[in-house]
Specification:
The complex is a heterodimer. Chain A is mainly α. Chain A has 3 helices and no strands. Chain B is mostly helical. Chain B is 77% helix and 2% strand. Chain B has helices at residues 2-41, 56-62, 65-86, 93-135, 142-181, 187-215, 218-249, 256-268, 271-281, 289-297, 311-316, 329-355, 359-367, 372-400, 404-409, 421-430, 434-459, and strands at residues 43-46, 48-52. In chain B, helix 3 (65-86) runs antiparallel to helix 6 (187-215). Chain B is globular, with a radius of gyration of 26 Å. The relative contact order of chain B is 0.11. The chains are: A mainly alpha, B mainly alpha.
């Protein structure tokens, strides 16, 4: 496996593992960002992955309320 | 002579004065609150201080104090038994505990499957008797309840002993064979007393735990079990996965910094936001992301976070309850979150430990013709063990105190199996029972300290801190 430090063949294995980890750690984060642009109806309906339009007013609202 | 000690005294005084602000802060915000919590736990304290109650709160929480003490002693016996069994092994401690945990886990599992079935049998039998008794218009109040639990404990004890002894013989045989092949078999000095201790302590724990459950606060005792599930699940997974990622990042790699950033990202995201996102992803509804993913694979939708069904029922179809049923599906989701947010942190810490190992050791091993596994086993593992030890200790402490993300994943009272220790403490505070909740907090505190001390006494001797 990738225990062997001197072997350069396992670079592919390592990239594979790292890509998998990167996708897994990024996915919820990206979803959070996407949800931040949604309207309330879209955010609670989880079937919708992409916001219909980029609602920057969410951020404006959050800024004003803080 | 006198003058030297005088200057020493002066220097000590100076140092003490410099230390004073730090010590003062520590006492004010660290030690005093702990003492206050202990003080509160001895009183009736529902919003305001009431009368002195002594240990009543503790009795209410863990039930019979003597059986609680016996359980703790049996836990200590378990550790001694472990030590006796593995004293002569040449494996590194992590390997040893892995082998033994696996064996004991398997033993417990089989023991309690048998027991679970027997218990169900007795429970139905008893219910029949109880309905009959009601028909005969007998008094069936509090005293009777005490009787039932004792009978149940006795009956289940019989079944337990039967399965236990059969299993321990098997286990002893296996371990003896193992020791034989290692030329380390020491029946009289190690294996036999160790096994006896393991067996006796498991019996004592199971009987006394039943007694505690019968007389104590079920919610709190169950929450301790949930805490153990959460803690063990999270810590083992996050450290093993972190080690894997650390190995993948170790040595020259293009895009190293980029991947390290990505791996570390979950640790810096705000917990509250991510817990909310996770409860959306692992929602109970059929349309939640994880269920849609399952649907793509053709699997029935699960209720994820709101599911109290233990996973052993999903995996094997066993109908157990309590400690031996394993974590519920909701708890597994919480563990997934814990793993997701802390694996990257572990990976970075372990990576730092890996890079601190001097490369010439590997070169020397290479010259001697060591295989990759051998150099991992004899160079990497021993030199990395202090870092792993540190992460296990801090991880266990952290997960025993875990609150935030579980609190945000809770949906009202649906998922009771997610109530860990700190959630239970918070629940009691929200009910206004300050005294009782501080008693629970003190119990949790003592447990964490005992756990840490046990780990230190077990494993710290085996650490290689580099001579």
């Amino acid at each position: 496996m990738f225990l062997n430090y001197r072997n350069q063949e396992n670079v592919l294995n390592r990239y594979f593992i790292l890509m998998l980890v990167a996708v897994l750690s990024l996915a919820p984060f990206i979803y959070m960002v996407l949800v931040s642009f949604m309207s309330l109806g879209e955010a609670t309906n989880i079937r919708i992955l992409l916001p219909s339009e980029l609602r920057f007013e969410n951020y404006a609202k959050a800024w004003q309320q803080a | 002579m006198f003058s030297i000690s005088n200057t020493q005294n002066k220097e000590t005084l100076k140092g003490g004065i410099f230390l004073l602000p730090g010590v003062g802060l520590l006492i004010c915000f660290g030690i005093l609150p702990i003492c206050l919590a202990f003080y509160m736990s001895l009183h009736r304290w529902k919003p305001v201080q009431g009368r002195f109650m002594g240990l009543t709160h503790y009795e209410k929480a863990i039930g019979d104090l003597t059986s609680a003490m016996l359980t703790l002693t049996a836990l200590a016996m378990l550790i001694v038994g472990f030590w006796l069994l593995t004293r002569n092994w040449k494996e590194p401690p992590a390997m040893r505990s892995l082998i033994l945990c696996f064996a004991v886990g398997l033993a417990m599992e089989v023991l309690l499957v048998g027991r679970g079935i027997e218990l169900n049998h007795y429970v139905t039998a008893f219910q029949d008797e109880a309905t009959w008794a009601l028909k005969m218009k007998r008094e069936m109040f509090l005293d009777r309840r005490g009787d039932t639990s004792e009978q149940l404990a006795l009956l289940s004890g019989h079944a337990n002993a039967l399965f236990g002894s059969a299993l321990m013989i098997l286990l002893a045989f296996g371990l003896h064979l193992y020791g034989f092949f290692r030329k380390k078999a020491g029946w009289i000095t190690g294996t036999l007393p160790g096994l006896l201790l393991l067996y006796a302590s498991s019996q004592i724990i199971s009987v006394n735990w039943d007694k505690m459950m019968a007389s104590g606060d079920d919610d709190f005792l169950n929450s301790l079990i949930h805490t153990v599930f959460f803690s063990i699940g999270t810590v083992t997974l996050q450290i093993s996965l972190g080690l894997m990622i650390a190995f993948a990042l170790y040595r020259k790699l293009k895009g190293f910094a980029f991947f390290r950033f990505l791996v570390f990202l979950p640790y810096v995201t705000p917990v509250v936001a991510m817990a909310t996102v996770f409860s959306l992803i692992f929602g109970a509804r059929e349309s939640s992301l994880s269920n849609q993913f399952l649907a793509m694979l053709g699997v029935e939708p699960l209720r994820w976070i709101a599911d109290n069904t233990p996973i052993t029922e999903y995996l094997f179809g066993w109908e157990l309850s309590g400690l031996f049923a394993g974590p519920s599906l909701g708890m597994v989701t919480a563990i997934l979150f814990g793993v997701w947010s802390y694996t990257g942190y572990n990976a970075v810490i372990l990576l730092a430990g890996l890079t601190a190992i001097p490369g010439d050791l590997y070169e020397a091993a290479d010259m001697e013709g060591a295989s990759a596994w051998q150099s991992f086993r004899h160079i990497t593992m021993p030199l990395l063990s202090p870092v792993i030890f540190f992460r296990v200790i801090t991880g266990l402490i952290g997960t025993f105190q875990a609150f935030t993300h579980i609190y945000f994943m809770l949906s009202s009272t649906v998922n009771k199996s997610l109530h860990v220790g700190s959630i239970e403490i918070w629940r009691q505070i929200s009910l206004g029972k300050f005294g009782y909740s501080s008693a629970l907090a003190v119990i949790l505190f003592v447990l964490i300290i005992l756990l840490t001390v046990a780990q230190f006494s077990l494993f710290s001797r085996h650490q290689h801190f580099g001579d």
